[in-house]
Structure formats: C-alpha cells, structure tokens
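Recap for those who missed Tuesday's class. We walked through two folding examples back to back. For each one, the amino acid string is listed first and its predicted structure tokens come directly after. Nothing is annotated here on purpose, so try labeling regions yourself before you check the end of the notes.
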Amino acid sequence: MSTRDLVAGDYVLSVTNVRVTIHTLGVVFESDRRSENHASTYHLIGGTDVEGSAQINIVKASPTDTMGTLQRKFCLYETSKTALHNVELRAVQGITVGQVLELLDQKGRGNYKLAPSGVGCRFWVKTMIEDLESAGYIDLSSPAKVSQAYDDLQYSYSKSQDRELDPIIPGVFM
C-alpha cells in the first residue's frame, strides 16, 4: 500500500519541506482539450529512518457533496505520479506533522464549503499556505517563496501544454 491514514505515531515526524502540488485528474469529457486539476499539499518527512510525506488535502468525496472532505494521509512517496506542477517551500527546522495538523484544526480548515461549482481545492491550499507562513512554519530563506505558490495556484496545467490562467474560485470556511 502506498498510502494510509495518518496515525498518532506520524505526528512526531519532522517536516523538511511543504510541497504544493497541482495534479492531473485527466479529461472529464472526450471533447476536453485540457485535463482537470486538483491541488494538494505534501509535507515531506526528514531526519528519521522514515521516508515519505504527509498529504493534507481537501476533496469532493461524492458528486453531490457541497462540503469538502479533509484527508490526512501518509504516503510512502514524496512525489505523486499525477503531479503536473510542484512548488517546494522549505519548512523551518523542528516543525512536525502534528504541529501542522494542530494549526489546521485550530483554524477550522476541515470545515470547508466548496464553491457552488464544486471546486475550491486551490483556495483551500492557498489558505493553508497562508496559515503556515503566518505561524512561522515556512523558512524565510526558502528558495521558492509563498508568493510563487500563490501565483502558480492561479493557473490550470495540462501535460505538454502551456499553463493557462484560471482564477481561483473560493469556497467558504464555516
């Protein structure tokens, strides 16, 4: 199994980097010329014998859902096979998966109403990155800056094609 739910023992793992990932979901209709995208975050694990990442993600679990479903997964990999674009932000030394999850819970980020069109993952990821930066969890000397992640989230990505501007449609935190 390459993923599993996070367990209490994972909470002490050190986070070295926060990777913002734009995934391909493939095309929905045969007439589509671009793939659908999904944004998520991977919190890369370092400093231990454990390799992998903690993926923290909001998804639309079923076609009729209006509320996002928060996923907290441990992945035995750092880079998703469906990744089209990544922005790597260096975490400050000593931050753990548990601290990231605690911040997420304190801010109520698991209670998220999707935009009326059923999208909203990019806004959710942007907000989460803002939270991490405000909490001092992103290293100010990181080669990639939070502003780059914000900018890159505003685009749609497809294999072998240029990115296209696709303004973020926000959901609502309840």
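Example two. Treat it independently of the first, because the proteins are unrelated.
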Amino acid sequence: MTRAISNEMNRNELIEFLSDSETRKEFFSMMKLKNKIGNLQLSPIAVENKTPNTENSEKRFSSRISRSALAIAASLFLLSSLGLYFRFYSSSFDRFQVENSVVTGLCKMQTTTDRITFYSEKDSYCDYKIDGELGLILRMFPESEFSISGDGSAVNLNLNSGTVVFSTSKKNRFLPVRAKVKTIETELLGTTLILSSNQNSGSYKIGILEGAVKVIGTNTKNANIIQAGYSAVLEQKTGIQSVVSEPEIVKIETKTLLRYRNISENSKMTLEKKTVAHSSEEKTLLQKAEVLEKHSSEPVFKIRLKNGEKFVGQIQEQENVYLLIDQNGDTKEIPKKDILELELVR
C-alpha cells in the first residue's frame, strides 16, 4: 500500500495490486486523504499596513517555517501509520481465512495474528479451503501437523509431520510462497504439491504434481527448478547422528503421480459439495493412499508362488505369512510355504 501511494510501482504492478476490490477501495481512500493533506495551507497572518519592524518580521517568518515543518511531519506520520495499519490488517486477516472444511475424525486448528497451524489425529482426514491473498485447497492425512504463516512479504507453508496434498492460487503474482519439509525448502511457481515427513523412517519429500518449484537445499547457491512428475527427496537414516545433506531429485512413478492428482481433485470436489464428512468411497481412497505413502520408502519385492502367480509390493513378515501391500494399496496375506521365489526389486 505504501509503495502504491508513493507512486513507486510500475504500471503492471499497480494493475495487479488494484485487481482486488477491497484493496482498490482502500487505495483510493488513502489517495483522497493524501490529496487533502497536500492541500492544507496555513491561515495567513494579518499584518498592519505599516512599515514592519525587522525583528518582528523575522519572528513571524520563523514561526511560519516551524508550523509548516510540523504540518509536513504530521502528514508524513499519518500516511506512514495508515500504511502500516492497512498492511497489518491485510496480513492478519485477509491472508488466512478458512472458508470451508470437511473432517473425518479429529482435526484441530490454532490461530494467531500471523499463523494458522492444523493438526490431524490418528485415523483422521481433513480438507480445508483457505481464501484471501493466498488461495489454498489443503488435504491432510492422519497424524499430520501443517502450518501457514506470513510476515507481509511472503507466505510460508511448513510440514512438521505426516502427509498433506495442496494446491495454491495467488491473487498477487508478486507474493512469494514457500514450502518446507525438514531441510527441503522450495519456492512455488504456481503449483500442486504433496509434502511428506516420515520421522520414523527418516524420509522427507516434496513432490510436484502440477506446475514447478525452485528447490533449495542446505546450500542456497544450489537451486534447482523442477517440474511436475518429480520429487525432492531427503533420506536420513534413523539411529545415526543426523547429517545435513542435499535433497535428491527423483522421478515420481506414473501410478503414484496419477493417484495423488486424483486425491487433489477429489479434495476440491469434496469441499465444493459443502458436506461435513467424507463419504465411504472417499475414506477408502484416502486409507489406501495413506498405506502406500507410509510404506513408500520401504523396499519393493517380487513374489512368485509355486502355482505360478506373481505379486509385487512392499512386504511385512509375520510368523508364517508375508503381508504384501501392492501398488493399489490393497493388502494380501501370502503363506510362506506357498512361495517359490522372493526377489528384491528396489
């Protein structure tokens, strides 16, 4: 607002800035006030039609200068204060407004003037539509913690734990939006992302479903622009002293990419329905996606049975059977006695 009133924006920036009706209304109100202040004049001092005394004239001249300086200082202070007020008002209220939500289970939200933090409990799924200067469609999986914060110059999206999928839309294309998981930092270039933080396995990632991001690791000079279909992945072994490393850029498997794009689109449709909870079909979709994401960093095996059947997926070993999780998120119990060959794929 201060830059606009001071005529420090170029034509394109001003058009973008005035695209919001509320901002436009505030801007013109401020300009009217500025013009009124600029037109203020001190009342002339009556002077007798006599030859003025030199000493009195100097005093009157000095008094006029002092009062003019005070008026100018007061005007500048008023403009500065109003500019700060509108900036605070915009960042504290317009920036973070939860317009709609659909919740299954227990989801909580904590708000301050510059931050909203979302929490989802075990077996809980949460969809939120956030409006304002930053538009956000957010889907949270169980046991996740995600926050949105801003200081007026940028918006920060931070995943502390769990998994979220979100898509963003900006009214002001000059507003930087950043997403962070562990030490993986990105600047969004208009996009749909999946963020995952698995602290148990030490696996962290930011996956790009649509658009592109600039990914910056611990070394800010090493920046990568990555497109949809790729992830920035950081693997830290548990039980070993943490060593800060650069994220690796990895291609997302086609099935995984399509699955999360479907989850993102489903979140938008769910919020448009304005229901209070997810349908049974949506819960099944989310539960399978949760299982796959939880085991995504685990090795993949191929199992060939004595009868010729073949299966591929992550496995969990039990006493007499293997529990296999396939690429669709379905679980199958395979007796060990029926297995002819067990091969590590990746």
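Answers for example two:
Residues 2-94 form one domain.
The mean pLDDT is 77.
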